[in-house]
């Protein structure tokens, strides 16, 4: 039985078995007993597992009484979901290693029939403040427009519980992040270095070749609306979202997206 001092070390041990670059992971799920008081002699135990389906791992027990912490690791070409809209499909690489609670909710949505109620309803383009490389133009205002599209992933028939704060990589073009604890979320159209002090949970990134769809949605007709005493550009016609799982080989996708990188989702 392997033991570690932290869940991070347990996670890293699993990732080390999933670095072949061909999408085949010998470990895709880790389970760690990290509550010293309740785990007792089992404290530090790390279980490394291989699931039949990493997006739908076998769940033995859940709830506040559970003393184990767990997470999943996606190999190349895995962990890709598609946000389907009438304007095109946005393929999103999920960040399982830094946002496990967020990914658990997305997986639950994948199991629902139609994601009824999921939609984009706000669009703020790049205007003249952001250049083609997603950066703010010198001496230009940081908004409005704020260079993002906003929506909700609250679906009828699926219970939503507030997402706790998770790892917060920087907001880059293509970043998919919760607003607060969700279910409101946004997709960024720029590298928002000025938002580094805000606690946004980034749980994925749009694949670079699909950013033109984000741009298309951002250019849809809008109307001014007042949300919580803030004037926003609301879509005249909200764009419905369907979620679909994608599983392709790494040769079929541009997977040059890393939540640790400052350049993911660039031009």
Automatic annotation (TrEMBL):
Q: Which InterPro entries match?
A: Cyclophilin-like_dom_sf, Cyclophilin-type_PPIase_dom
Q: Pinpoint the PPIase cyclophilin-type domain residues.
A: 80-240
Q: Which PANTHER family match?
A: EXPRESSED PROTEIN
The molecular function terms of the Gene Ontology recorded here are: peptidyl-prolyl cis-trans isomerase activity
What the entry lists under Gene3D superfamilies is as follows:
Cyclophilin-like
What is the organism field in this record? Acorus calamus
Signal peptide stretch = none
Source taxonomy: Eukaryota, Viridiplantae, Streptophyta, Embryophyta, Tracheophyta
Pfam annotation, one family: Pro_isomerase
Question: Please, which domain of life does this record's source organism belong to?
Answer: Eukaryota
Q: What is this protein called?
A: PPIase cyclophilin-type domain-containing protein
